[in-house]
Amino acid sequence: MTNIIRAEVVTIGDEILFGQITDTNTQWISTELTNIGIRTVRKSSVGDQAEAILAVLHEAHQRADVIILTGGLGPTKDDITKKTLCDYFGVGLVRNEEALALVTSFFEKRGRPMTDLNRGQADLPANAVYIQNDWGTAPGMWFEHGGRVYVSLPGVPFEMKNLMTHRILPRLQGHFSTPVIKHKIIRTVGIGESFLAERIADWEDNLPPHIRLAYLPSFGQVKLRLTATGQDTAQIDRELAEQVDKVMPLIQQHVFGFDDDELEVVVGRLLKDRSQTLGIAESCTGGFVSAQITKVPGSSAYFWGSVVSYSNSVKISQLGVKPETLEQFGAVSEETIRQMAEGVRKTLGTDVGIATSGIAGPDGGTPDKPVGTIWIACATEQRTVTRLLRLGKYRDQNIQLTSTYLLNLLREELLNQ
């Protein structure tokens, strides 16, 4: 039976609870802990109140082997983490001369005066193991109490990440006999979570006990995350690969990549490998698809440009959409989207043209064409393929879903060539 080491990550600061800053620390810490075989079982955020911090520490002690805190170590009065830790452990503050020397050197090198508040950063709980911070003035602290390890780190991401990487993670690996925890992610598109689960139900039911499956849905996509636990890295890798081989025949048509692959990266890779160029005509997505494509470094090798044809006049003048097509069928129609995709391909002189036109919402729908009615198309030298999407009433969601479905249509057409 593999011994699982469990961790809880606690962020401290009113600014997090007020939504004034985005907490990126817990995500990064959890990823790094997983990489060394420690599983995060809970994440908590508390404000700068001693009672709240004490409560979460007592709770974390009951469910975790490692408790990692970030924030509240600055020199001002609202930074109360050290004093609260003293209350929790029943100790007082003691000045650490090594920490004081580092803080003094920090200010001397910058030609800045040091105040008593700055010197106070060298005062640590008496039971703390001092963890040197070469990237700032607030030291890290390591505690061992009641069979648990507590780590307190600055909340500034740059300082926290360096302390974790160079000081804490190696120390945790030396302290615990950690198992191997490995993830393998299969990325799917164009199939809903429930349909996917039904299709792979028998395979999922027969997974070995030490391999767990999670469904992670997003806009038009579902990630299947396999998490395996064991003692032998090579064996875990082999077992994950075997499970991927078993499930792939069931979902092959919907799989576009693995692990960190993004749909726009995969599409870009296909275009580049085939030495093909891309032009985009966007109406309802307003440039969002183009932004996804150009997020990818090196996209200039295959992406030539786009036309955001929000008005019918631009569809006519720049894309060659016939006025009679718009008059007879409207901007949101199969006939128009076909001419948009073929038109942008001709206008920009690219191998492939893709297009969007629809009613993103929240207004503009009709009984025949309600909000969420979207047409997409992909035109190549061989053919033009169109698809009708019937989405919901939320504008941002419709734009993101349309982008996903259009990029997937492009992917399928490139693979079919």
UniProtKB/TrEMBL annotation:
SMART domains: MoCF_biosynth. Gene3D superfamilies: 3.30.70.2860, CinA-like (3.90.950.20), MoaB/Mog-like domain (3.40.980.10). Signal peptide: none annotated. InterPro entries: CinA, CinA-like_C, CinA_C, CinA_KH, Competence-induced_CinA, MoaB/Mog-like_dom_sf, MoaB/Mog_dom. Residues 8-175 form the MoaB/Mog domain. Pfam families: CinA, CinA_KH, MoCF_biosynth. HAMAP family: CinA_B (MF_00226_B). Belongs to the CinA family. NCBIfam families: cinA_nterm, molyb_syn, PncC_domain, PRK00549.1. This is CinA-like protein. The lineage of its organism: Bacteria, Pseudomonadati, Bacteroidota, Cytophagia, Cytophagales.
